[in-house]
Amino acid sequence: MNFVTPEIAWAPLTPILIVLGAAAAGVLVESFIKTPATRRVVQLWLSGAALLAALVAVVVQWGGLEGAAGTVVMSGKITVDLQSLAWQLMLLIFAVLSVLLFASKTSDNEESFTALGSVAPGSVEEKLARRAGLQVTEVFPLALFAVGGMMLFTCVTDLIFLFVALELFSLPLYILVALARRRRLLSQEAALKYFLLGAFSSAIFLFGAALVYGATTQIDVAFIGIAIEIVDGRDGMLLLGAVMVIVGLMFKIGAAPFHSWVPDVYQGAPTPVTAFMGAATKAAATAALIRVMYLAFYPLEWELSWMFWAVAILSMALGTVLALVQTDIKRMLAYSAVAHAGFILVAFAGLEAEALAALPFYLLTYGLATIGAFAIITQVRERAEDGGVGAEAVRLGQWAGLGKRSPLLAGAMALFLLSFAGIPLTAGFIGKFEVFSAAVAGGAWILVLIAVIASAVAAFFYVRLIVLMFFTDVPEGAEDSIAVGNEPLSRVVIYLTAIAILVLGILPSGVLELFQESAVFLVIGG
Amino acid sequence: MFPFLTVLIALPVVGAALLWALPASARTKAREIALGVTVAEAALFVVMALQFDKADAGAIQFAETHAWIPQIGASWALGVNGLGLLMIALSVILVPLAILAGWREETDATRRRNYMALVLLGQAFMVGIFAARDVFLFYVLFEAMLVPLYFLIGGFGGAQRRYAAVKFLLYSLVGGLIMLVAVVALYFVGEGGEQAFLIDNLTGMEMSSTTERLLFLGFFLAFAIKAPMVPLHTWLPTVAEEARPGTTALLVAVLDKIGTFGMITLCLTMFPNASQWAAPVIIVLAVISVIYGALLAIGQKNMMRLVAFTSVSHFGVMILGIFAFQQTSMEGAALYMFNHGLSTAALFFLVGFLIERTGSADLADYGGLQRVIPVFAGSFLIVGMSAAALPGLSPFVSEIMVFIGAYPVAKAAVIVSAISVVLAALYILLTYKKVFTGPVLEGSEGTREMTLREKLVAWPLIVAMLVLGFLPGLAIDYVREPAADAVAYVAIEEANA
Both ends of chain A: CA-CA distance in Å? Predict the structure, then answer.
């Protein structure tokens, strides 16, 4: 057997290389710049510049395709096509916004991240580290590694490479989750849980890939699709393999019953990290699920449809019902994320072409609202005993009367919640409409009916928060308990996302056009 | 041509934005600004209405069609026929009156500013919905309107207002979301394309009768919740009791008409066969609404709830008129939509004025006011009798048209519904007796007589009802052809079948 070195066309990978290169450079910055404050500034500018440069590179590449579907980078392993470019663009936008949140500091000059990740919570060393002004600026290169991995995840067309990209973006996230400044035990517990369950799901994914290889002798997604139609006699193995691969991806999307990490991680992680994960992980995983379903497992559509139906219905039901009883705002949004995972899976019914444009749009609107909502959570803080700014006020009751304290923030939060609920004139509605259209095109109108009922129930807990913010008075004696921050970086993120949600809700035409243009895969071989 | 309808929608939105942008020092002037905007809106509407070609009232006029989201087949398509024009008239008349009626309700300048801005937003949505010629646009406005209304109900009113707001929102949202499924499905049933949702492109569609019936139900359910039809009416009394009288007046007098308006312009034109199929059941439910609403109105102790239940009864009459598919009954129903708006809004305003005086909507807290405030009592009696369809006042004409028109095809329904006329006299006169006759209740001797502002609110409505009571032709001319078209849609399909 001859081993042929694959030819790699590097140019289409430029955006990913920029991001990963900047991440590597960021690691060097960690070693060579000693002053924490300078380091932080350098890291911020480095990662910001890298992400924007990557953004430009994606746009240039999109323009350079001139109607072609895409470019083959490495025969059958990596294909940068319009579909993946659309996802990369989205991931970069999420990343830029998240990095701004990562860098945001409270008026007391407190960051979201611990001073020294390696010391025990509450220990003397921790106090010393804090006093010394240490900062964990590794969060920036870690985030860049994660973004690079996610971008790669969207253009890989080979199950083994997919696994590598999955690990590439998961490992930095495990670390990021553990680095919260306050409630560190919760944060570390969340990281451990995320890591264990994540490793478990990666293993399932890998096992599934092995089974699929066993049944079809292929690991390239396009060839798997062809092989499934030719090969017979190994249906059991193939189906089991396909199910396991999909389970691995659904875990990352956060769909029930693979959602058990979601509430803990959303709650425990530093809020900027939650915002980043909530938006970007879901998008990257959805992109990969689309590629796997549409290129590899489409012949099994009928056999796998029960699974999508069941998981979608379970996610919507569980997510909405459990969100109803939450008292912690981050956990509530976590369960809402589970419900949204269900809405995402609704679009897979029938594997219609419409979904290829609908899902990116949905994830874009969902991600922007998620980042915006969590950015607001970083701003609403308890007042510490010494009169300074304390931890985030995450108990729902603490949000009572926010509309009076800060009408702008409360208004923006209401907008994001209405967008989650899918009320017209917000981006979330157009997203939902698109997703439901795709499902109805696939003949799954009963699933859509279930989804709208779930939406109505979900609206209840979004609205409950709006009631709290606007119609409930600040409790007596608690007038001074909440400090609303006014950090410029967070404010920028909040206003940008709010404007985007409104614009995408009222005039979505241009963006829809873009995503319809990108609803193509480049398939080689055959 | 001047885009009248777009400007009519945009003007209140601009007004609302202006109010929210007001510096704190100028907030005390929010009422004046809001009133100014609505008066400008009314003036613009009058200019438009004068150019309306009455001879061709069935045709869509002032049409504007622009691509909006061509990817999903949605257009910014506006236009009105005679019926739409009347409905928009209702909203431009009642919104300034509602602002005037609630002039003194709020003392806090910021809250008052918010209330006024939300009312203006609500007006933009009302005008937009009655002018929409695109199902997607209609749906978007229909659902988005819930947001300002939710804040209007939940932010301003009685102690239980938050509960009322959530109840209203959930009822409307469930109906709206089921309608969303039907809207999505319409795209695939129809021709598709960049103008897939234009109503003109959605008439006479080829589809199986099951599909048509399901789609019809999807739309009808949302409309039946809006035009509170038994058994989907239970949100209305709660809202009426808790919300501001001005809010409730706009809600019942204008917004709930979207339900009956939607039945005529969407259900009948897009799904004529299914409308026929469902008509017997709908008529039965309508008759139940008529009687049940009237009976419950008699039993109410809270005046706001009482008026709300009278509306449940009256909406039943409108729905009966629509689903009898007769020219006269359809005309009557369309006319009733307008007249009921005048009459109910006046009634809610007057009850609101009483509440302003005593702080209570409870019948038990009133008695013998006739001697203390005779002018107010007289106005109340006239408005009340209009709700009971007294001849000479405009609701009478429309109600009689519905009954006469529907009689040949639905004898039993009409006969049973006609009992409501007696019941209506009962609930109005009983209320009048309790509040205004008998011995003067202790402590209410000093009740303030009707003020100039209150006269300015109530009397124009009374005059309008008197004029249209004696010269109903003024309004019927606008609805005759739209009604004929609606009936024709159903009849043609029947002939084909």
Answer: 22
